[in-house]
Amino acid sequence: MGGDHGPEEVVAGAVDWARLNPATDVVLVGDTEVIERLSIADRLPNVSIVHASESVAMEEHPAAAVRRKRDASINICMRLVKDGAADAVVTAGHTGAGVASAILNLGRLRNVDRPALAVQMITDHGPMVLLDIGATTDSTGKNLYQFGQMGAIFAERVMGVVDPSVALLSIGEEGGKGEQRVQEATELLVASSLRFIGNAEGKDLPHHPADVVVCDASVGNVTIKFFEGLSGFIFDMLRAEFRRWPLGPIGYAFMRPGIGRIRRRFDYERLGGAPLLGVKGTVLITHGRARKRMIGYAVEVGAAAARARIPERIADALA
Questions:
Q1: pLDDT (tens digit, 9 = 90+) per residue, 128-178?
Q2: DSSP string spanning 123-169?
Q3: CA distance 258 to 21
């Protein structure tokens, strides 16, 4: 029921994915009457509906709404995973509500102080994991260290990266440079079994400085949204230039294949969304602006993370 375009786009994307993946069950959680009106779910044997009489609106305080609305769709999703009736939650709704509901209903893994949202960023050497991008702010050095461990497990088990490298996002690449929590995390990461390579600066991110880059949620959220805004701004400028008469359309005719390749490379919808690492269950939070295409990719990533048993592997690593 969440997202800027939900439930229309969410239902359509989930049902389309289910049609292409008949061996996997998809459960649509929300207002049954609305879902049935929007979908052909009752015609697909691998799609079912679980009714939810409430939902969390974007303008509501997430933690308060999650506690007050026990029958909210996000709470029912989390309880389905907790009870073993589902293996993963995929949501395009309120990020804060998703995080709060996961902590409240699923709980944190043992030895995890805070969960983290991890996103795959596009670089010139393939996807890179950046976390935390918005789960909880004001992280400690120990939190950043745990984020590094969780991010490395995700990179290895879901993305197929062998022995992933880990870096801390800081104001300088020199060792020990940065705020106190970065220095504390550096000591812990150096002493760990992770392949820690030191600090990375913001200018390094497009060039894949490490397989996993760790930062506080405030820094990560600003970083990822700046990248999204900048890429959109660049493509808008290109469109404006190619429309300039008379040479713009001619230039576009020559540049069209290259522009297409660049656009496919910057296609963030294919990345699906951000897994919430550190809770007792697989939770994937996709973009609030997601339309049905991105919803399908999000369900695919959620299914892959569930099959990889990421929470169990994180628990083992932090034991």
A1: 999 988 888 889 999 999 999 999 988 888 788 999 999 999 987 777 677
A2: -BTB-EEEE-SSS-SS--HHHHHHHHHHHHHHHHHTS--SS-EEEEE
A3: 33
* β-sheet bridge partners, residue 91: 285
Q: In what order do the strands lie in the sheet with 274-277?
A: 88-91, 282-285, 274-277, 116-121, 128-131, 212-214, 165-169, 195-200
Tokens for 193? 């079994």
Q: How far is CA 270 from the centre of its chain?
A: 11
Kind and range of the H or E run holding 276: strand 274-277
Rg for the chain, CA atoms, rounded: 20
Q: What is the pLDDT of residues 166-205, one digit of tens each?
A: 999 998 777 767 788 999 999 999 999 999 999 999 999 9
Residues 6+ apart with CB under 8 A from 248: 241, 242
Contact assessment for residue 142 and residue 184, using Cβ atoms and an 8 Å cutoff:
yes
Q: Model's pTM, two decimal places?
A: 0.86
